[in-house]
């Protein structure tokens, strides 16, 4: 099993969206038995809560159901439980790097820059974030498939 984790601040907007989109792509590729997808927040303010209603709505509009997800906080054991850990922005990356044991495999979600925090934004911000995440998830899955000969 290959374990993939997306990390953002509160685990209610960006990383749950990435989790939902990525899991759907994995299912569409027939790889559910090979790839486990999860998400977490570097902060614990929203632990136990469902994703933000706006993120749920935009995902649903794209036939991705994230309504059953519940926020949880990143924990040290995640560094070894997941082969792929993607930080949605530089702030998350810095926090993870500070906590990481030597050799932990961390990467930015985007190759160039941050997925902006839509929390204080409007529906357009959530839509833009969704599009960004959907495009990048396809690339990441293709790379993981190739790297692991799936
Ligand atoms: P997320 O968005 O990191 O994409 O889930 C945020 C959600 C909540 C907060 C910040 C960002 N917050 O500060 O509570």
Concise description?
42% of the residues lie in helices and 14% in strands. The protein is an alpha/beta fold.
Describe the structure.
The structure is a single chain. The chain starts with a strand and ends with a helix. The chain has a single domain, classed as 3-Layer(aba) Sandwich (Rossmann fold). It has five helices and four strands, in the order E-H-E-H-H-E-H-E-H. 38% of the residues are buried. With 150 residues, the protein is of the alpha/beta class. The protein has helices spanning 14-28, 53-61, 78-81, 90-99, 123-147, and strands at 2-8, 35-41, 84-87, 106-108. The chain is globular. The structure holds 4-nitrophenyl phosphate. 4-nitrophenyl phosphate is lined by residues 8-14, 45, 117, 119. 4-nitrophenyl phosphate (4NP) is lined by residues 8-14, 45, 117, 119.
Distance between the termini: 11 Å
Low-confidence stretches: none
CATH architectural arrangement? 3-Layer(aba) Sandwich
- Helix proportion range: 40-55%
Global geometry: globular
What number of domains?
Answer: 1
Number of helices: 5
**What is the CATH fold-level name?**
Rossmann fold
Mean pLDDT: 97
Rg on CA atoms, Å: 14 Å
Helix and strand sequence: EHEHHEHEH
Name of the top-level CATH class: Alpha Beta
Attached small molecules: 4-nitrophenyl phosphate
Beta percentage is: 5-15%
């Amino acid at each position: 099993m290959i374990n993939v984790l997306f990390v953002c601040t509160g685990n209610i907007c960006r990383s749950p969206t990435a989790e939902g989109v990525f899991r759907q792509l994995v299912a569409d590729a027939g790889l559910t038995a090979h790839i486990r997808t999860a998400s977490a927040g570097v902060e614990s303010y929203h632990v136990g809560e469902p994703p933000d209603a706006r993120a749920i709505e935009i995902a649903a509009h794209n036939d991705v159901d994230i309504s059953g997800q519940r926020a949880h906080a990143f924990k040290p054991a995640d560094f070894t439980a997941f082969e792929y850990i993607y930080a949605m922005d530089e702030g998350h990356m810095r926090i993870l790097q500070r906590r990481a044991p030597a050799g932990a495999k961390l990467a930015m979600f985007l190759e160039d820059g941050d997925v902006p925090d839509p929390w204080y934004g409007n529906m357009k911000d959530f839509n833009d974030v969704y599009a960004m995440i959907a495009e990048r998830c396809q690339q990441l899955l293709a790379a993981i498939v190739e790297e692991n000969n799936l």
